[in-house]
Design brief:
Elements: E1 2-6, H1 11-22, E2 26-30, H2 33-41, E3 48-52, H3 57-66, E4 73-78, H4 82-90, E5 95-99, H5 103-114, H6 125-137, E6 144-147, H7 154-163, E7 172-176, H8 182-190, H9 207-210, E8 215-219, H10 226-238, E9 240-241, E10 250-251, E11 255-260, H11 264-270, H12 275-281, E12 284-287, H13 298-312, H14 322-330, H15 336-350, H16 380-395, H17 400-414, H18 419-426, H19 430-442, E13 447-448, E14 455-456
Parallel strand pairs: 1-2, 1-3, 3-4, 4-5, 6-11, 6-12, 7-8, 8-11
Antiparallel strand pairs: 9-10, 13-14
Domain Sigma-54 factor interaction: 120-349
Protein name: Sigma-54-dependent Fis family transcriptional regulator
Domain Response regulatory: 2-114
Length: 462
Amino acid sequence: MRLLVVGRLSGQLASAVKMAMAHGAKVQHVERGDQATEQLRRGQGADLLMVDYRIDIAALIAANEAERIHVPVVACGVDAAAAEAAAAIKAGAKEFIPLPPDADLIAAVLAAVADDDRPMISADPAMKAVIGLADQVARSEASILITGESGVGKEVMARYLHQNSRRAERPFISVNCAAIPDNLLESELFGHEKGAFTGAVARRIGKFEEADGGTLLLDEISEMDARLQAKLLRAIQERVIDRVGGSKPVPVNIRIIATSNRDLAKAVAEGTFREDLLYRLNVVNLRLPSLRERPGDIAVLADHFVRKYAAANGVPPRPLSPEAHRALVAHRWNGNVRELENAMHRAVLLAVGPEIDVEAIRLPDGQPLSGGISPYDAGPAGRAAQTADTVSRAAVGQTVAQMEKTLILDTLSHCLGNRTHAATILGISIRTLRNKLNEYADEGTVIPAPQSGIAASGYAAA
């Protein structure tokens, strides 16, 4: 976790910095907003900006975005009035941290942004076999393609490979190719020269150069535009990159790890992914099994998440009851480890008594993991009849466009707003889903917010 602090390093802000460092953050400091933008341009990257609320946060964010730099901002300050804290949020800050700092709040904010506390935990033979293969290739320089359903832990595996590689002491840089629009992704990856486009007032170092000597993770590589795939192929083959607007190749020394939740061989056949790029990326393929294929991991992962979120929320850790363990193992977990993690977070907050019982484990819609008895609960055939009856009644009188909209929004809600997971279930690309959601938002429709079950209006996030 790389933290860039912006503002005068007063006693209270210095205390916040020390707390962040105690939680593993690597901290840099500048006093002014323009200095922060300049530092980011030079490739001294950051995962989070912690900015004194008295600095013009809106101007800082605008300057970064003009340079196609996207780093989340949290505001902080001493004795800030409620109106001043609200103004910082309206200016673009994701959170406000009052000073003097609270250690738990600092830890929670860093965890929410970095999400690095994801150790490789497994007890199932199917997953242990994959980890064994990862151990074999971790110290090599081979490019690795990690595949599997959304939520199985592909980024966790990428970090595990980096931590066990010969590049472990160098940077690990991650780029979500599905979350960044095509017109921004090229600059994000390769950087740009001064004057390359409107707003490019200085040279900016991209993720390839930022990861020099270390590992670059290209998350959801299947969503990359075909034109950019050609430039990526050259960078991998020649170990040089061209900044946007540049005239001279820049050498880079990195290891590439890519992930995809789609069948790239099928994408090649459909003409949406380059075959030669797939060969370059897929020197070693690590396919992560779904949680349904590794039931032996469910209990150990659930116990880990209970301890993690009990500590994060300041509540005493409680064990899962035997009934809860049985229910967890019996559940299908279509959302894989991510869905299990969210369920355990809710369970920690909802549990009463000395144990976390099955009643505390809720699905995203608030229903218990083991639903109640209904007239249709006569086994799989009865549940199928109930589903068919409900769907047919809801469909009558609706247009195809209305049915499509309902299906997309219901699937997105089921996935807690996760665009990538929803697109996978729907069988469409993340770009198509994003366009549909923006269309619905233009109509005034409320769009489920990412990573939560709460709806928020506005345009679709990636």
